[in-house]
Amino acid sequence: MRHGKKFNHLGRQTAHRKAMLANMACSLIEHKRINTTVAKAKALKQFVEPMITKSKEDTTHNRRIVFSKLRQKDAVAELFRDVAPKVGDRPGGYTRIIKLGNRLGDNADMAMIELVDYNELYNANKPAKKSTRRSRRGGSKPAAAAPVETKATNEEE
Q1: Taking the model in full, what pTM does it have?
Q2: I need a labelling partner for 19 at 20 to 30 A (CA). Which of 3, 68, 71, 131 fits?
Q3: Is 70 part of a structural domain of the chain?
Q4: Domain span at 95
Q5: Residue 37, strand partner residues
Q6: ∠115-121-125 over CA atoms, to 5°?
Q7: CA 75, CA 71: separation in Å to the nearest integer?
Q8: What is the pLDDT along the chain (157 residues), one digit of tens a residue?
């Protein structure tokens, strides 16, 4: 039975798990991507995304809530100063988990978790959104095939 199993305990006591997730979240905010196991990456995603949502509105109350979870003043300052403006228009999904294969020592499934807006490789390929809409009927087509030539007239004659 899986009654009351809402999140992964990661084989740790509560205080150890909270401290580990806080340290991993601070590292993620500082370095913008970290390598860890898949289970820890999924737990970290659930831990850090509500804090990024809180950081979109910079109030003293939100800073205190985030600081109570992260426990590092520098990470909180960087989250509100750098990360929040970059993800301001995104409605959610601030992190991405990319599976990397198995670790050599114990064959654990490894993954890279990163902040979505800080990866230039993925964001460079996507074109900017166009504000114009196209109709299906093919109405107005640009006449680029036949350039219009203008005749020079002599006004002196």
Answers
A1: 0.77
A2: 3
A3: yes
A4: 14-124
A5: 110
A6: 115
A7: 8
A8: 889 888 899 999 999 999 999 999 999 999 999 999 999 999 999 999 999 999 999 999 999 999 999 999 999 999 999 999 999 899 999 999 999 999 999 999 999 999 999 988 877 766 556 566 666 776 665 555 555 555 565 655 5
Which of 29, 33, 15 lies closest to 119 in space, CA to CA? 33
Q: Which two tokens stand for residue 21?
A: 């997730």
CA angle (79 as vertex; 73, 85 as ends), nearest 5: 145
CB contact at 8 A, 47 and 7 = no
Residue whose token pair is 């890279």: 112
The continuous run of DSSP H or E covering 54 comes out as: helix 38-55
- Residue located via tokens 């990866």: 119
When divided into structural domains, the chain yields a total of 1
d(CA 68, CA 62): 10
User: Is 54 inside any structural domain?
Assistant: yes
> CATH no. for residue 27?
3.90.1030.10
Q: Is residue 157, in this structure, part of any structural domain at all?
A: no
